[in-house]
Amino acid sequence: xxxxxxxxxxxxxxxxxxxxxxxxxxxxxxxxxxxxxxxxxxxxxxxxxxxxxxxxxxxxxxxxxxxxxxxxxxxxxxxxxxxxxxxxxxxxxxxxxxxxxxxxxxxxxxxxxxxxxxxxxxxxxxxxxxxxxxxxxxxxxxxxxxxxxxxxxxxxxxxxxxxx
Length: 164
Prior knowledge:
By secondary structure, the chain is α/β, with parallel strands linked by helices. The chain has six helices and seven strands.
């Protein structure tokens, strides 16, 4: 059994001045923290999903992943700056300190925010929305723990990130 640990988010948000859609996860998994990049667990369907939405090959390297996100004017970050967590389990998250989105919102064209899963959305609406006043749309999690959603179903739900 993994122990509860207080952990700070170990890497920076991914965005540039042309980013228009922000996708917020909750907090990096153990694998993502080891890789020092978003959605590092091989079973997480995030990269397959984004590649499918934009008709591109699934990126392998961190550089390819960064290019895929920025090429489509997306931004990636997480709702949680630090928390106490056991392993990668969203259900174990406690002592949440939310992320400040000002750096992204002040230096990009982001006008739409989507949350990858329920925890990200809950943290956003409780702690971040009062500052941003921008509603966030909750999307089904790409995590392997969300087995109820096939990749096809995720693609259908997530296609709204492309609507303008």
